[in-house]
Amino acid sequence: MARILPRPKVLASEPYFEPRSIDWVKILTIILFLAPGFIIMFTILYIPVIQSFEYSQYRWNGLGPLERYVGWENYERLYDTTQYRHARLFREATKHTFILMALSLTIQLPFAMLLALLVGRGNFRGKKLFRTIYFVPYVFSDPITAILWIYSLHPSGLVNTILESIIPDYQKIIWLGSVENPSIALYAIFAVLTWKYFGFYMILYMAALQNVPKDLEDAARLDGANEFNVLRKITLPLVGPTIRLTIYLSILGSLQQFVIIWIMTEGGPVGHTEVLGTFLYKYGIDGLRLGFGSAIAVVIFCMSLVFSIGYQWMVLRQDYRSLQAQ
Amino acid sequence: MTTTVSSLPPNIREETAYGRYVLNGFRYGFLFIVTFIMLAPVLLAFLGAIRTSSEFQARPFDIPRRGIQWHNFTEILEDSNFWLMFKNSLYITIGATVLTVLVSSLLGYIFARVEFRGRGLLFNVVTLGLLFPFVIAILPIFIQIRKLGLLNSYWGVILPLVAFSIPGSTLILRGFFRAIPYELEEAAYIDGCTVFGFFYRILLPMARPAVTAIAVLQAIAAWNDYFLALLILTDESKWTLPLGLMQFQGQYGTTNWSGIMAYVTILMIPAILFYMVTERYIVTGLTGGELKG
């Protein structure tokens, strides 16, 4: 029998002889079980990502051999705004990505928390139905989401029709692709992303809120705290680990938005919804400029890596530790 | 209990009937507004699909006044291309789901139950995959898939889908596998169970909620995938439904609005049905089993 188990503690006082021979059955089992996963992870993900560092040093359309070595030129094209048009576009794309990120953190997550509090707390009819409905968009593919909203945000579409019936003297807004007011498209897209994703964060918050002991909140109320203070001083700190986790997920999620934006606007009008994902696709993949595309990917990858490691080290570490202590 | 309530400070007395009414009134009002916003686009698609395009364009939200336009649906469903894409989507979804469950449960098992030197390191190597955003890795993956000669094949989409979900799935399964008591493993071995026998006959069935959750989440991800299919499946006979939807939209986007809404409705119905059946597992998977269904 392969000794897969750690040696039971009870036996510690008894004489125990570690077998000298190597346990081949165990080693073979480990290798066989790990091999499929590791082969897939390395051939499909790790090795290609590492190779893209090399590709980013070349001008390459992906078809011929890697011949035209250009050194750091592809990176300069992303950095040197005085010389390259792409660098200016890349800055814009980065800016829009950060706007989406900031909006997600300041609006989307608090909104999800508000709904988690409203839906998750107390007993009332239809509790589960609300949760189910808010989470529905999670199962729709990005093309479905994008198309539903293209037609809802159409000048004569649903959103304008509803606003017209509520607000007197309402001027129809061209949400996606207005020439006079092009920046509104980014906010419209943010609304769509919120529609699709807040249910996910709400579910995470609901799970966390469920574990907050009611006694603690009641104790605070007995001591004279009002509802707002109970929330601020007791409830939210107790779901802190989940909030910090969702901040992490939300930031990484904002960095990789692509499909919905691409289908809805292709980065337009005139680049006002260009984000890192659409920039990479438009200038790196679509024209088969794979060397330049690799450089873009490497830059975005480094951004998210620095953020990930920094955030995990500075913020999430304490949560891991308390998780292990439990 | 009335004496207790009145002896409490006023800010706790919200549990009285009147306070509850007011609170619930606000709560319901707000929740219904959000519900409307969530469902309006879905309803819009349905109302667009059963009416003519001109009706839909004139009034997005209205009842059908010229009869229900069933032909919007039948035109799509009678197209053999639609069923070809349906089949492709199905193959890719099944392949990616089965492979993900298989591979990540093997990994999860080793990382949860087998002790050996370097286990922590190898586990970190797997979870490192969580740091690779999809959009960024897609270009290297595309180059690699082409190098492997897997363009226009199901495997070209399945393998990246699996690679992306291995880290998360392994993490979840490892947690569940760890929670299964060691005494059970001892007993199984004493009764003559092999390592694989224990894994297959005891561990997997006991962790079934987690395994199902992973399968469901991966099935949704694979069925909905658009970006990978867009890059890797250039041959139309290999296309999946999301690609088909986008092609249809590109072709009729400005003229046949009702047709597009019908297409969207046809794709939404199985998604919603699947969601209603599996919601419990989705929630389990996403919250690590903390939120009860």
Which features would summarize this protein structure in a list?
heterodimer, A: 326 residues, mainly alpha, MetI-like fold, two-stranded antiparallel ribbon, 1% strand, B: 293 residues, 2 domains, 14 helices
Question: Would you kindly provide a written description of the structure presented here, covering whatever features stand out?
Answer:
The complex is a heterodimer of chains A (326) and B (293). Chain A has helices at residues 24-55, 73-79, 85-120, 127-135, 142-152, 158-166, 184-210, 214-222, 227-238, 240-255, 259-265, 276-285, 290-325, and strands spanning 58-59, 68-69. By secondary structure, chain A is mainly alpha-helical. Chain A is globular, with a radius of gyration of 26 Å. Mean pLDDT of chain A is 86; it is low at 10-15. Chain B is mainly alpha-helical and 293 residues long. In chain B, α4 (71-77) crosses α14 (257-287), α5 (80-113) packs parallel to α8 (154-178) and α11 packs antiparallel against α14 (257-287). The longest helix of chain B has 34 residues, at 80-113. In chain B, 42% of the residues are buried. Chains A and B meet through α1, α3, α4, α5 and α6 of A and α2, α5, α6, α7 and α8 of B.
CATH class of the largest domain in chain B: Mainly Alpha
CATH superfamily of chain A: MetI-like
**Approximate shape of chain B:** globular
Number of separate strands of chain A: 2
Oligomer: heterodimer
Name the CATH architecture of the largest domain in chain B: Orthogonal Bundle
The CATH homologous superfamily of the largest domain in chain B is called MetI-like
Write the layout of secondary structure elements.
The complex is a heterodimer of chains A (326) and B (293).
Chain A: H1 24-55, E1 58-59, E2 68-69, H2 73-79, H3 85-120, H4 127-135, H5 142-152, H6 158-166, H7 184-210, H8 214-222, H9 227-238, H10 240-255, H11 259-265, H12 276-285, H13 290-325
Antiparallel strand pairs in A: 1-2
Chain B: H1 2-7, H2 17-49, H3 53-58, H4 71-77, H5 80-113, H6 119-127, H7 134-147, H8 154-178, H9 182-190, H10 195-206, H11 208-224, H12 227-232, H13 241-252, H14 257-287
